[in-house]
Every structure is written in structure tokens, then in C-alpha cells.
Specification:
Strand order of the largest sheet: 3-2-1-10
Radius of gyration: 24 Å
Helix content: 40-55%
Length: about 450
């Protein structure tokens, strides 16, 4: 309402640019700004705070808005990349899958710890096997009633997580093998499958905003930070300043370098002989980040974010076409030779046990924004595209909430509506026609867009 009435009235039809700090909730604010017909800029929180200089007064929302306004007018605003709506949707789905696999690992470790407390030695990797489950359910193992109850609940939670994770993984893999940029990653890099390709594609973003491959490694958080002074030099450590899902995807792909047929096996074996296998996988992951940077830059700009027409798993187990208007039926060719020779059958390193999927994962997005025309990743003002908005929650957000509630065996009807968005107020600072306006939200934790 503030954008549509107050700011629009003062603009008198002139262009208006608004800067938003990249804190929690930035996506909702940016999409509301774009929906109102204004230009949105996302400020990087750490660099924006550094540009403030020495603190002389109390830090308030009004002072934050004033700083964003001044930096925008001078052209010194440290901007973050705003991904297209389709990239944000698939990023949410990848993160949902990662959350489900992490939750499953937590329950496996809890079962392993409970067995250890009762003197039962079972390898952690064998806990999910049907043979181990049948053995623990029998009378051959001496466990207390409370321990049996905890183990039974743990296996039930693992099954509930797999029910949500299996169809989601199927959709991610199918999309990864059909989207042009993701398919180029799969065909060019050993160890990257459909799921890992979607994770890298959605988290690494527009590689044309990087001038060299080292910046892509820095963005992933796999670079080594060194603390040295004079003759003192501490051991290096990973910076971990970047998307956690991107580091996970690159590391999982790098672990395939342990295969004899991998082109990176010689380098992996050399590092492992000097240090250990974990450091060897991290070293290969850095190389994969650089290669992915070059592969994504080589894909045609109009095909990097093209969204193909997909077929998704239905509730009855059959594949059904996606009923969504405005999307192309198939993805254009990338020009890269399709060859899977020598690639392992499962290159995602996140295999799940086979099973059914009794629910339908809705992964359609109500927008026809299917290509990327600029480095900023924002809708072009001259194009006749519908502008996405978060006046209602996105399908990926609803899927994340529903999957979490089902994994916890909670009834969504007992709590708030899934995907409900609370009120968000913007700063009161507006400008005259053609001026740059800064606004700041209440929450300040830095979030990588």
C-alpha cells in the first residue's frame, strides 16, 4: 500500500529505484517493489555496514535507510545478485531436499547412539538396511522398553522423511537432465548428476557477475582463510562464507573422484596420500567450482535460465505432464555432446532406498519468465512479462512447510496456515520524482541471496 499510493504519487510517473538490505525477508520486499513498477536493488549487508564508517550515532532503521539512499545516489551501493523467480523456486526445492536428508541423518545417528548405550555394536551405515531393522525388531537383541520405543520412533521418522524426499529427488533429477545449463554441467563434469547440477545452477547463480573463477570459489566458501602476522602463521581453515547447499553439492560431487575411472583420481589419490581423504575431496571441490564457473559462462545467455516443460510424478505413481501455460515444451539444445560414458550410475552421492511416493509435489510457478536477458537477473521493463509477487506463498515454500509438518507428524490445521506471510513494514523515506529511495526492514541477520 505504501508503494502503490505514497511512493507512486510522489514519483509522478518518473522512474524510482529502491535499495533494500539483504536481510531476512528480502525476497518478499523486492518482489513487491517490482510488482509496483519500481526498480529494486539488493544491498550486501556486510559491505554496506563497512561503508558506514566509524559509528557516531545510534544505529536505527532511519539511519540505515539514509545510508542506503546515499550509497545508491552516489553509485557506491554494494549490490547482491537478485536471481530470477524460477531460480529462487528451484533453490528452495534443493534446500528442502537437503533439509530432509539432514533430518534423516539425525535420526540415524540417534538410533546408533541408543544402540551404543546398550552395548549393541552396529555400523552407522548399516542401520537403515532391512536386515538390521528386522534384527532390531526381534527378540535376539536385549534392549529396554524405552530403547525399543526410541528406535521404533526413529525408524518411523526415517520412513516419513523418505516419503517426502524420494519424489522430490525424482523431480530435481528430471529437471537437472532437461534444463540447458544443468545438462551442460552434467555432460561436462564427472561426478555431477541431475540433482547436484540443479544445486550448483541455483546456488552459484549468474557466473557473468564474476570476473574470474577464483571469485566463484570464494562465493562457495571453499577458499582457505589464513591468519598470519610477521613470522607467525596459523593453520588455514575454510571461510564457509557462502551458500551451505553449494558447498554440500560440490563436496558430494568431489567424492566421486575416489573412483578409478574419474579424471581427477590421480590428483585425489596424491592429496589423500599426503593428508587425508576429506581434504582431498575439498581440493577437488574447489576445482569443480572453477570448472562449473566456466561451463555456466559458456552457455548461451538466453538459455542459462530457460525452464523446460517437465513431467512430474503423480500421486498414483504415474508420470503426468505439467499443466502450466506459458512454458516451452522442451529445452533448446546446448550444443554440448551428450555422453555419459564412464560416469557412475548414481553421481549424486545421495542415494535413497527405493520406495513409493504417495503425494504429488507441485513444482509449477505462475510466471512465464523463462529466460535471462541481463546480468542483474531482474525482469526487463520493456518485456511484456507478468511480474511475480509473493502476495500468496510460492509452491516451493508451501512444499517446504508441508514436508516439514509431515515429517514431524503434525497437522497443519492445528497451527497457522502453511505459507502464511506476516506483515512487513518498509521505511517511511520516500523521494520526489526520479529520486532514489532507501528502505530497511526490522531484522538484520545477513542472508546470502
Amino acid at each position: 500500500r505504501w508503494l502503490e499510493h505514497d511512493v507512486a504519487r510522489r514519483a509522478h510517473g518518473q522512474p524510482v529505484a529502491l535499495a533494500v538490505e539483504g536481510c531476512t525477508g528480502w525476497r518478499y520486499v523486492v518482489e513487491e517493489i517490482v510488482a509496483a513498477g519500481f526498480e529494486a536493488h539488493l544491498a550486501e549487508p556486510a559491505d554496506t555496514q563497512a561503508a558506514r564508517g566509524r559509528k557516531r550515532h545510534a544505529k536505527t532503521d532511519r539511519s540505515d535507510s539514509q545510508l542506503l539512499r546515499e550509497l545508491s545516489r552516489s553509485g557506491d551501493l554494494p549490490e547482491s545478485w537478485i536471481p530470477p523467480a524460477a531460480v529462487l523456486e528451484w533453490r528452495e526445492r534443493v534446500r528442502l531436499y537437503k533439509s530432509l536428508t539432514d533430518q534423516r541423518t539425525v535420526w540415524v545417528q540417534r538410533i546408533h547412539a541408543e544402540l551404543y548405550q546398550h552395548g549393541v555394536s552396529v555400523p552407522e551405515g548399516a542401520i537403515r538396511s532391512p536386515k538390521t531393522r528386522a534384527w532390531l525388531a526381534g527378540d535376539d537383541v536385549q534392549l529396554s522398553p524405552a530403547a525399543r520405543q526410541r528406535i521404533r520412533v526413529g525408524y518411523a521418522m526415517i520412513d516419513a522423511t523418505d516419503v517426502e524426499a524420494l519424489p522430490l529427488k525424482h523431480d530435481l533429477q528430471r529437471f537437472g537432465f532437461r534444463q540447458p545449463a544443468c545438462r551442460a554441467l552434467v555432460e561436462a563434469q564427472y561426478g555431477i548428476g541431475g540433482l547436484i547440477a540443479v544445486a550448483v545452477w541455483s546456488e552459484l547463480g549468474d557466473c557473468r557477475r564474476f570476473s574470474r573463477s577464483e571469485q566463484a570459489v570464494r562465493h562457495s566458501g571453499l577458499d582457505v582463510t589464513v591468519d598470519a602476522s610477521d613470522r607467525r602463521r596459523a593453520n588455514g581453515f575454510l571461510s564457509r562464507q557462502g551458500p551451505e547447499t553449494l558447498r554440500w553439492a560440490l563436496y558430494e560431487a568431489a567424492k566421486n573422484a575416489s573412483h578409478q575411472r574419474s579424471p581427477d583420481h590421480a590428483y585425489y589419490a596424491a592429496v589423500k596420500s599426503r593428508r587425508d581423504g576429506k581434504l582431498a575431496s575439498i581440493s577437488v571441490a574447489r576445482q569443480l567450482a572453477r570448472r562449473c564457473y566456466h561451463v555456466l559462462r559458456s552457455v548461451d545467455r538466453e538459455l542459462v535460465y530457460a525452464i523446460p516443460g517437465l513431467i512430474f510424478a503423480g500421486s498414483d505413481g504415474r508420470d503426468r505432464p505439467l499443466e502450466h501455460q506459458g512454458l516451452p515444451r522442451s529445452a533448446p539444445a546446448t550444443g554440448v555432446r551428450a555422453s555419459n560414458a564412464g560416469r557412475p550410475s548414481n553421481t549424486d552421492a545421495t542415494a535413497l532406498p527405493p520406495g513409493g511416493h504417495p503425494i504429488t509435489i507441485v513444482v509449477a510457478d505462475d510466471t512465464t519468465l523463462v529466460e535471462h536477458l541481463g546480468n542483474a537477473g531482474r525482469p526487463h521493463p520493456a518485456a511484456n512479462w507478468p511480474i511475480p509477487t509473493l502476495r500468496r506463498s510460492s509452491p516451493a515454500s508451501r512444499s517446504f512447510v508441508l514436508a516439514s509438518l509431515r515429517a514431524l507428524h503434525l497437522d497443519p490445521a492445528c497451527g497457522p496456515t502453511p505459507g502464511q506471510i506476516g506483515p512487513l513494514t518498509a521505511g517511511p523515506h520516500t523521494g520526489n520524482a526520479g529520486e532514489v529511495v532507501g528502505c530497511s526492514g526490522k531484522s538484520k541477520p545477513p542472508v546470502a541471496p
